[in-house]
Structures are given as C-alpha cells and as structure tokens.
Amino acid sequence: MEIPVPAAKRTPYDKIRDAIVSGELAGGTPLTESSLAAWCGVSRTPIREALLRLEQDGLIVRTERGPVVRSRSPEEILDIYEVRIALEATAARSAALRRTDHDIRAMRQALAMVVSDPKDPAELVKVNTTFHRRVWRAAHNEAVVDLLQRVELHLARYPETTLSYPGRWERACQQHAELVDAIEARDAEAAAAIAHQHFTEARDIRLQLAAEQDLV
Known about the structure:
Layout: H1 12-22, H2 33-40, H3 44-57, E1 60-63, E2 66-69, H4 74-98, H5 101-111, H6 121-139, H7 142-155, H8 168-184, H9 188-212
Antiparallel strand pairs: 1-2
C-alpha cells in the first residue's frame, strides 16, 4: 500500500507572497505585523521573517509608514525586463555550449506541444513556460535558473500574458524554433541574439498592455 505524502503546509511567507502576486494585496497596501499575524494565525516572529524575505524578493518596500506592497508601474516593467533579457540571453548562450542530446529532444518535444485553444491565455502560458524551462535546464547553470525564477515571481504581478497580443503567439513559436536550431548547432551567439530579441519584443508588448491599463 502506497503511503500518501502530506501536502506541505503553507507558511506565512507563502500566504502573503501569493496574496501579493494575485493582487489580493494591492500595491501600496500597508503590511502591519499584528494584522498579518492575526490573518495567518501565527505570532509576529514568523511574520517578521516573512516580511524580510518578501523585501529581499522585491515584492515589498520599506517606507516611513513601514512595509507596503510594491506598486506596479511601467518603470518596474522596464527594470524587470532589463534583467530578464540579459538572463534569458545568458541561458540561451549557455544552453548552446552545454546542451546534451536529451536536452534537444526535450526542447523539440516542447515545440511540438499543441495548443488546442489559441484563445486560452492559460494554455498559451503553460506551453510557453514548459518550453522556456527546458531551455533553462539545457543551460546547466543553476545560478541563472534561480535568478530567472525570481524574475518570474515579479512578472507574476502582471497577470496579463503578452502571448494573447495579436500575432505574438505565432511570432513566439517561430522564435522558439529558431532558438532550438541555434542551440542544437551550438551557435552560442545566435542563440543569445534570438533570446534577446524574443524578450525585447515581449517587453515592448508588456509596456503596451500597461499603457492600455493606464499604468503609464
């Protein structure tokens, strides 16, 4: 008989982080230890530790009034993508130099994943995420992967996917295929250039979406 593995208990950090990412705790919301402790059903010590981690993650900022949720802004989008573009290009370059035959098969399997409903943003994101995570894995650089995961956490506060933008999904699929070809050919500079262009275009669309939502 197989013994079920109990689900990991959500910590105060998990609960507050998820509330920030989902927008339940909006930008500018004050984060007081006493109210958060009551909400999470814990003492103030784990809340203090959670707030420190969230500050390190860049999801909250310290002000004269105490910690508050970091507000969304076009400047933040630029900051996030400046880092993401550099890291994704580094991952692509590293993948071209370090990839294995198994990595190539995994990336091509991701390329072959069919989106049954191109109008479903969640499905587009799922397929896209699978592909890029396989590129990260092919890079065989844990430091880069760790940093990219942190960048993803920041982008999660902007839930509107760029993949739903007119023409973006088709363009992304074309660039994904070109990226795998460059990685398979061990052309590090071409792989880095394709990744750089891919995420630069994503940044520009993200800024356009922000403008349409009056974030600019």
